[in-house]
């Protein structure tokens, strides 16, 4: 079955006209909808203080998502901590690095980023072993990141600043889509929480990240697109390759 209707389980990009997904719409005559499958709940400043972590002790921050960025600056504001100009930021991807412009002047701060994998970022971080790293994350985070930081003898602290919860999707007509695209394990769980009778049948499944793919498989889903890869470092590129190949077969 040819894919035409695609559901991206994330909010629409802020600049939709420049989005690579919009390029796919134009090139392949697709219909792409956006629907957040998860909700983010920040921990309170009271909860954070119970961990007895002083964020002013750290000279660098590791960001693996936009949610981590938002909640770091939120908790800093609630704690009345003024983030110093000297703070270094290490982001897992270029898009996360650019998102920092919401809070800091990009050119005046020390911002570094990888190419989508933490191993890329780790190589950059090794040049700054004397820094103390703060790793804000959700209660559902990749356990291999702290493990790799320990293995490479970084001075760091992991702190849960937000929780990732399944969203209410009761108003969504899931049956109209030929492809569902997931970016987190919670997103996959949200599908089955909201649609317990969901059957994949001919629906194509796309997942980003190994943990997301594993949860999808655990729920009995067959994955047609797994990203990132060297050939397709982004989900948009992976979808482009899949749809392009599918259209060739139809000719």
Please summarize what this structure is:
This protein is of the alpha/beta class and 251 residues long. It has nine helices and eleven strands.
Structure in words:
The model has no long low-confidence stretch (mean pLDDT 92). The strands form 2 sheets. Strands 3-8-7-4-5-6 form a 6-stranded mixed sheet. A 5-stranded parallel sheet has the order 2-1-9-10-11, sandwiched between helices. Helix content is 33%, strand content 22%. It folds into 2 domains: 5-37 and 170-250, Rossmann fold; 40-165, 3-Layer(aba) Sandwich (Rossmann fold), CATH 3.40.50. It starts with a strand and ends with a helix. The protein has 251 residues and is an alpha/beta fold.
Set down the secondary structure blueprint:
Elements: E1 5-8, H1 20-28, E2 31-34, E3 38-42, H2 45-49, E4 60-63, H3 66-78, E5 88-91, H4 94-99, E6 110-113, H5 118-125, E7 132-138, H6 144-151, E8 155-166, E9 179-182, H7 185-194, E10 204-208, H8 210-218, E11 225-227, H9 235-250
Parallel strand pairs: 1-2, 1-9, 4-5, 4-7, 5-6, 7-8, 9-10, 10-11
Antiparallel strand pairs: 3-8
Helix pairs in contact: 1-9, 7-8
């Amino acid at each position: 079955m040819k894919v035409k209707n695609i559901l991206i389980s994330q909010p629409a990009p802020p600049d939709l006209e420049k989005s690579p997904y919009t390029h796919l719409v134009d090139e392949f005559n697709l219909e792409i909808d956006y629907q957040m499958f998860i909700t983010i709940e920040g921990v309170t400043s009271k909860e954070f203080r119970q961990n007895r972590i002083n964020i002013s002790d750290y000279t660098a921050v590791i960001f693996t998502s936009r949610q981590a960025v938002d909640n770091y600056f939120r908790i800093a504001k609630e704690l009345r901590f003024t983030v110093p100009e000297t703070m270094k930021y290490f982001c897992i991807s270029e898009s996360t690095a650019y998102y920092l412009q919401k809070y800091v002047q990009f050119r005046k701060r020390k911002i570094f980023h990888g190419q989508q994998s933490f191993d890329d970022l780790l190589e950059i971080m090794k040049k700054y072993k004397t820094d103390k790293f703060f790793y804000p994350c959700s209660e559902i985070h990749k356990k291999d990141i702290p493990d790799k930081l320990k293995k490479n003898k970084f001075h760091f602290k992991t702190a849960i600043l937000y929780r990732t919860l399944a969203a209410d999707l009761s108003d969504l007509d899931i049956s109209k889509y030929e492809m569902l695209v997931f970016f987190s394990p919670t997103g996959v769980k949200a599908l089955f929480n909201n649609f317990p009778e969901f059957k994949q049948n001919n629906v194509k499944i796309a997942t980003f990240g190994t943990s997301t793919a594993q949860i999808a498989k655990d729920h009995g889903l067959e994955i047609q697109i797994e990203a990132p890869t060297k050939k397709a470092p982004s989900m948009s590129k992976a979808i482009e390759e899949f749809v392009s190949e599918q259209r060739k077969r139809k000719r």
